[in-house]
Amino acid sequence: MAYYLGIDVGTSGTKSLLIDAAGKVLAEAVAEYPMHQPKPGWTEQDPEDWWQATVATVRKVVRKAKAKPADVRAIGLSGQMHGSVFLDAKNKVVRPALLWNDQRTVAECDEITKRAGGRKALIKMVANPALTGFTAPKILWLRNNEPRKFDKVRKVLLPKDEIRRRLTGEFAGDMSDASGTLLLDVVKRQWSKKLLSKLELDPDLLPPVFESEQVTGQLTAAVAEELGLSTDCKVVAGAGDCAAGAIGNGVVERGVLSTSIGTSGVMFVHSDQPEYDAEGRLHTFCHAVHGQWHMMGVNLTSGGSLQWWIDNVVQGLAGIPKGKRYEAATAEAAEVAAGSGGLSFLPYLNGERTPHADPSARGAFVGLNLTHTRAHMTRAVMEGVVFAMRDSLEIIRSLNVPVDQIRVSGGGSKNPLWKQMQADIFGQNVVTLNAEQGPAYGVALLAAVGDGAYDSIGEACKATIQVKEQTKVDRKAASAMDALFPIYQDLYVALKDSFQKIASLQ
């Protein structure tokens, strides 16, 4: 038998799944771990938690599938992007990893922009502006704020690439994930020697980078024994979670866009050429499709906003177990008409990336009156999340990038209300797919390509991924959403200065 393993090192947990060569999911498992917030706006994790979760989930899926060691031919790796794992000369972690949603690096972003010769010069070098979530500012933050620890650093790895090192003993990365470091020449698909020089960073800090389906090593004997696998098992380069999720959604050709509502929200569109938003509001990254690119808008707290609302505020659902509060709350919200009675929610609970690039942005309800209920507020939170994603879609459309089909995934594909909201707020029918396992599924397909089961990732996606159902636009609801959307956009502009003052107090 030929089986392929996908491992996704997420923010809240690691997911592993096993597929056969036809793309059928044989087994899957998830192990959770904490995210630490030592200060407001700071987010960190212990890479050892990722490793322990990887071991636990891989062993579980191998056992569930009753797979023999030789059956698992290759592994694909995905993970949260932008995180920084700092290793010393003995490959020991120097400090907890700084994560994608960490906002401490405002000064370092300014430093990078200045050293590069300005925002336009920086975008010309690496296709993107300096944002707090990216990896390069984190490296400079360590140098500026914890110099003794920085002096020990010999390698900087992204989260999934630290797992690769533990699996194979090799340092390696892939083009899509490396794009989010701000240190990759995205057009030439190689590390930017020019920017590294301007930042006075040693290129040897970074691992070699590969196309996503290329083999980067094989399991060490010790790890193979620990996982119940074979040393013949290959490990391919894999992809950052956004690109991996797009592979899992079959977004491998022009005209197809995917949305994903997880902790963050992502709008992802394929591009045959590196296309740019001149204002730097969208990311232009290498795709996990060999020699291709994509544009992407990211909202930092999408599903995370609803999770915050339910966990910390919705305490009035008496008698309902915690695990069912999500369904109960969204069922209440479904009874409220589109537009939430004129109530708006800004989902900027941890700053925002697209389109504002503002770490000081904060969440807000605006428009509350005495007629509003908990159900109105829940619906407003959900609508606010989708409005934030429409911000990205509007930019994509303004650049004349075709969007012929919108594929929804993540939590936004599993809840009927959120699917309908996306259709209505985007003003376009949306579809869901037969494959709903996300990034782990995408990199399992990359592993199959790397092992030779398919000639290309496009071929693999066509063979395994099909449209399952369509959610059509409700024109009355869409009209209400169109009326509310410009108000939503105006609110950030009106509150921006106040957000900065509030952030300074926090």
UniProtKB/TrEMBL annotation:
CDD domains assigned: ASKHA_NBD_FGGY_EcXK-like (cd07808)
Residue ranges of every copy of the Carbohydrate kinase FGGY N-terminal domain listed in the record: 3-248
EC number: 2.7.1.17
Entry keyword annotation includes Cytoplasm: no
Superkingdom of the organism of origin: Bacteria
MF term (GO), any: D-xylulokinase activity
SUPFAM superfamilies recorded: Actin-like ATPase domain
Domain Carbohydrate kinase FGGY C-terminal, chain residue ranges per copy: 258-449
Binding site for substrate: 81-82
UniProt keywords, alphabetically: ATP-binding, Carbohydrate metabolism, Kinase, Nucleotide-binding, Transferase, Xylose metabolism
Entry-linked InterPro entries: ATPase_NBD, Carb_kinase_FGGY, Carb_kinase_FGGY_CS, FGGY_C, FGGY_Carb_Kinase, FGGY_N, Xylulokinase
GO biological process per UniProt: D-xylose metabolic process; xylulose catabolic process
Active-site annotation: 241
Pfam families reported in the protein's UniProt record: FGGY_C (PF02782), FGGY_N (PF00370)
Residues the UniProt record annotates as site (Important for activity): 8
Catalytic activity, as annotated: D-xylulose + ATP = D-xylulose 5-phosphate + ADP + H(+)
Family: Belongs to the FGGY kinase family.
Function: Catalyzes the phosphorylation of D-xylulose to D-xylulose 5-phosphate.
Protein name: Xylulose kinase
Organism: Rosistilla oblonga
Gene assigned in the entry: xylB
